[in-house]
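Renewal narrative, Specific Aim 1. Our central claim is that a sequence can be written position by position from structural information alone. The example that follows is taken directly from our test logs and has not been curated for this report. It begins with the structure tokens describing the chain, in the order in which they were read.
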């Protein structure tokens, strides 16, 4: 698998089968991602963890350009349906579905969710993606919670994508414990440095993960790495 970091909480993951998954696109309003051209980002599926602007800002634009399938909770899928996005698959917490590329499960996250116009965004969540060539977890915005221990019992993760910015979500210490609980030895950190309240000290953050035997990966915006 290949992972490309597009800034804030947006990552694109190209699976071994060639399918391209894009999570939580927030690019054009992000000054740190000004070098990224949102109109060339590939996507076969766009997955949204919750409705906040800093996770959905470019979703409609990308969905309409690429013809990708939207995967999110029922409320978010319905909201985009009113905008003409009909190629979509609604889910809810605890449910899973077998797509052509593998199985997607929508898992618990502790956060909030409202769409940019103030509409109810349903329950926030994260995703566990299981494919024939690997398994990974995208936490979405969340606090540390005990359900993460269940993910470690139920899945064998190759890596995880986790929020680490603190203030609005887990900080590095909580995220490192979450990584231990879910059984991920490699974590791509997201949701940090975009705004002043979520600025982090990268050396301290990496140390928190190292104490638990976990590698924290912080790719540059636009960087692609093998996973």
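The sequence written for that structure reads:
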């Amino acid at each position: 698998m290949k992972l490309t970091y597009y800034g804030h909480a947006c990552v694109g993951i190209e699976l071994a089968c060639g399918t391209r998954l894009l999570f939580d696109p927030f690019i054009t309003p992000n000054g740190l991602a000004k070098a990224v051209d949102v109109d060339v980002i590939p996507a076969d599926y766009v997955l949204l963890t919750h409705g906040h602007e800093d996770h959905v800002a470019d979703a409609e634009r990308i969905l309409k350009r690429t013809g990708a399938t939207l995967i999110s909770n029922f409320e978010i899928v319905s909201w985009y349906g009113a905008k003409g996005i009909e190629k979509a698959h609604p889910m809810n917490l605890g449910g899973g579905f077998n797509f052509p590329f593998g199985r997607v499960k929508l898992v618990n996250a502790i956060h909030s969710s409202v769409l940019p116009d103030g509409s109810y965004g349903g329950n926030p969540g994260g995703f566990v993606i299981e494919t024939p060539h690997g398994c990974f977890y995208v936490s979405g915005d969340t606090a540390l919670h005990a359900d993460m221990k269940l993910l470690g019992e139920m899945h064998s993760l190759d890596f995880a994508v986790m929020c680490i910015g603190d203030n609005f979500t887990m900080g590095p210490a909580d995220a490192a414990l979450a990584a231990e609980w879910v059984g991920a030895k490699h974590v791509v950190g997201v949701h940090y440095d975009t705004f002043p309240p979520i600025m982090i000290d990268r050396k301290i953050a990496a140390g928190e993960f190292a104490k638990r035997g976990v590698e924290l990966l912080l790719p540059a915006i636009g960087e692609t790495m093998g996973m």
